[in-house]
Each structure stands twice: as C-alpha cells, then as structure tokens.
Design a protein that fits this description.
The chain is α/β, with parallel strands linked by helices and 302 residues long. It has helices at 16-27, 52-57, 74-90, 102-109, 121-133, 137-145, 147-152, 158-171, 175-178, 196-213, 215-224, 240-246, 252-275, 290-301, and strands at 5-9, 29-33, 60-61, 94-99, 187-193, 281-284. It is globular.
C-alpha cells in the first residue's frame, strides 16, 4: 500500500505542528491535518492553524476545505483523508497525519466511519428536548434499536446518542450495521505528552498570543460575513468565548480567562482519549526543542 502512515497526536498546544514541520523533510512526508476545526476557511487564529510560512515549508492537506456554515461530517473527513493518503502513497510520499481530534484519527487509522446521513436540526432538537425532559430515554431507545451501538456509547454522551438515533431514523438501519471497517494499512502512532503544568503554561501563552494577533477582529469579521453565533463552527473553542465578549455578556479579560480554562479542559479530554489506545507510543517533550522532538520521533519510527 506504499509508505506507512505516520501519526503524531496529542493534546492541544503540546507542539505537534512545529514537530511535524521539522519531521516532514526527514521522512519525505507531507502533512495531513486531523483537526475538526482547521477545516474551516477564515478561522485561522482561533484554531491555531499553521501559518502561511509553515505551510510554505511543508505541503499541508485538509486545511480550509469548508466554509464555517458547512457541515463536515466524520465520514466526509475520512473520505477526503483517504483520498489524500492514497495519492501521497502513489507518489511515494509518507503521509504524516497530525492533530488532536482523536475520532478523526481513529476514523483514518481503523477505517471507522459513519454513513453519509445529513444532520437534521429539527430532529436533533426534539431528541435533545426529550432527553432533558426524561434523562436516560435516548440510551434506552438506542438499546432497543441498536444494542451494539448502545453498549459502546455512554448514556450521558448525548451527541453520539442523538447521531446514532438520527442515522436509524433516516435509514431504518442501525448505525453499527452501517459503520464499516476499511483500515488504511500500516500505521505508526506517536503521542506527544508533557508535564501538565508546563502544558497549561503553553496554553495560557497561546491564548495571549491569539488575542494579541487579532482573534477578536477575526470573530468580528466572521459575524459581519453573516455566520451566525449558533453555527457549530462558531460554537467551537476560541470563538464562543469571543462571541460572548462581542455580545457584551463578559469583558475581554473574562473571555480570555474562559478560553484558557476551556482549552485546559480540552487538553484533559484529549489525554483521556489517546491514552485508551495502546498502539500509541508516547514521547515526553517537556524539555525538548522541536528539532529534538522530530529526531526522537524519527528514531522511534525507524
């Protein structure tokens, strides 16, 4: 199937992008982004998207593939990623999958995807309202129609429960039946980790840099272009906090504080997700430069 897929994953702000850009020339690789937010055009600062200078050094794929009001499903992302990886392998280039979106990475590595069933906003709103009125009823319903999916989805994971039931309502078939496994082939996965306090300091510094770089103006421009604050993309980290500020609900200092807090919470969830996968080999990068990280990853791969 060509060169193996190399995955570099880990929590936000741990240094994945800098390491990948340094690593890519060593491997004769191109970067495939695995991030649920950098797919959107015009959302650069808040998503910590690679800069134009970084992209000039190494080709990046799957950035800016959708407008903020478009829906990029897991299945859509995986189809795009597989096409890119297949093309890279055909050209004997190493596909370097980089990101912190664990489900996106899993979808590529394990071939895990879901059917192309467009989201139904009205149906989702009704199911969420039903769940608020009678907590636990969504999981109970899923147990009736798709016991296999219910066994692997936590009763409080409302988003996944709603999606599973949405697919069943629209297709008449359980999502567990429609999900397919089509592995991408050989893959090497390296996870970057860091002392927790050091990571939190990096997160705080990044938020300060984003605000200084014009995050508020970026959000203002998106709103001015007609993108509603209720869009999933605009509800993402870095945007919902600034929207609250622009709406006068909080001051800018409080918005920054919330963004730092919410980013730390995201990092915790990412750690939890990636730690579940025993195939990931971990590298502590607390005291390493990006050059040293790239060298260590290269050594681990070899």
């Amino acid at each position: 199937m060509g060169p193996p897929l190399v995955v570099v994953c880990g929590p936000t702000a741990v240094g994945k992008t800098d390491a990948a850009i340094t690593l890519a020339p060593r491997l004769d690789a191109e970067i495939v982004c695995a991030d649920s937010r950098t797919v959107y055009r015009g959302m650069d600062i808040g998503t910590a998207k690679p800069t134009p200078a970084q992209r000039a050094r190494v080709p990046h794929h799957l950035l800016d593939i959708a407008e903020p009001d478009q829906v990029v499903t897991l299945a859509t992302y995986r189809d795009h990623a597989v096409q890119v990886i297949t093309d890279l392998r055909t050209r004997r280039r190493v596909p370097l999958l980089i990101g912190g979106s664990g489900l996106y990475i899993r979808a590529v590595v394990d071939g895990f995807t879901i059917p192309e069933v467009p989201p139904d906003a009205a149906l989702r709103a009704q199911m969420e309202a039903d769940e608020r009125a009678r907590p636990g009823q969504l999981h109970a319903k899923l147990q009736q129609v798709d016991p296999q999916a219910a066994a692997r989805i936590h009763p409080r994971n409302i988003r996944r429960l709603v999606r599973a039931l949405e697919v069943y309502e629209r297709t008449g078939q359980p999502i567990s039946f429609l999900q397919r496994t089509d592995p991408i082939g050989a893959a090497v996965q390296v996870g970057l980790t860091m002392d927790r306090e050091a990571l939190y300091s990096r997160i705080d510094a990044r938020v300060d840099e984003q605000l200084a770089a014009g995050l508020v103006a970026e959000v203002e421009q998106l709103l001015a272009r007609g993108y509603a604050p209720t869009l999933p993309a605009m509800r993402g980290l870095g945007y919902k906090e600034i929207v609250e500020y622009l709406q006068g609900r909080v001051g800018l200092e409080e918005a920054g504080r919330r963004l730092k807090r919410n980013t730390r919470h995201l990092a915790k969830r990412q750690f939890t997700w990636f730690r579940r996968d025993s195939r990931i080999r971990w590298l502590d990068v607390t005291r390493l430069t990006s050059d040293q990280v790239a060298e260590e990853i290269d050594r681990m791969i070899q």
